[in-house]
Amino acid sequence: MARIAESELVINPDGSIYHLNLRPEDIANNIITVGDPGRVPMVSRYFDEVEVKKEKREFVSHTGRIGKKRLTVISTGIGPDNIDIAINELDALANIDFETRAPKAELASFNIVRIGTSGSLHPDVPVDSFVAGAYGLGLDNLMAYYDYKPNLGEASLEDELNAFMEHAGKASFYVCEGSPVLLEALGEDKFNGITITSPGFYAPQGRELRARARFGVEYFKSLAKFKFRRYPIMNFEMETSAIYGLSRLLGHRALSTNAIIANRPNGTFSKDPYKAVDRLIQNMLGLIGNSPLF
Known about the structure:
By secondary structure, the protein is of the alpha/beta class. The chain is 28% helix and 29% strand.
C-alpha cells in the first residue's frame, strides 16, 4: 500500500500519534476504554504495575500489567466523534509502520472492552446493575462515512427494527455487532442486550430541559419493547456502536459493558455511581485476568 501522507497520519515530533500522544510501544493489545479521564486511575490502581502514564486533551492512558497480562486503559471522552479518533489512532499505533508510513504486513488484533455508564430502558434492569451489549444501535452517523458492510445478523436486526419502527416512529440508525466471543467470556452475570448509542445526552436520549426534543422519552420506552432473537433493546449511552463498527472494520474484537446509573422508566438514579462503576471495573478485570483470550 502507498505511503500515507503527513496530512492524513499526523505524527508528533516525539514520534507519538497526534491526539493520543502515544508511541507504538506504549500500548498493549488488550485495551480498556472509559469515557471519563478520571476513571483511568480507577482502573489502573488494580494493575500490579503501571509502566506508562500519558495524557493529552481528554485522552489519558495508563499501560501496565495484571500478572503476565499487559493492558492499556484509555479515556476517550464523550461521544462517537471521540471514538473515531481513539480507535483509529490506537489501530495506527499497532498496524502502521511510523517510519515507512505504510500498513504492516502482519496486522495486530486488539481486544477492546468498554467500561462505561448508561441508562436503562427497562423497569426491571435496576440502577447499579451491569449490561453487556451484543449489538450497538447507532443513532449517530459515524459509520455512514466508512465503507461498512453489515453482516447477516446486523442486516436482519436492521430489517426487523425498521418494520417495528413503522409503528413506533422512525429515527435513522445503523447496527454493529459486538464480539460474540468476548460477550460469551465477559457477559456472565450481566443483562445482555442491544445498546443504543446516541450522539448527545439531552434530546438524542429523549431529555428535555428548555429545548423541545423531536423524540421524547416515551419514544425510547417504546423501543424497549423490541427484541431481536433473545436480545431486547436494553440501554443507551454514547459510544458503543462506534466502537463496534470501527473495531469490526479494522479486525479487532470489542465488547461494551456498562454500569446502569439511571433507570429512565422508573425515573431513578444511582445513589453512588462511583461505587457502581468500581464494582464493574473489579468484575471486568477479574474476568479478563482469568480468561485465556487476553
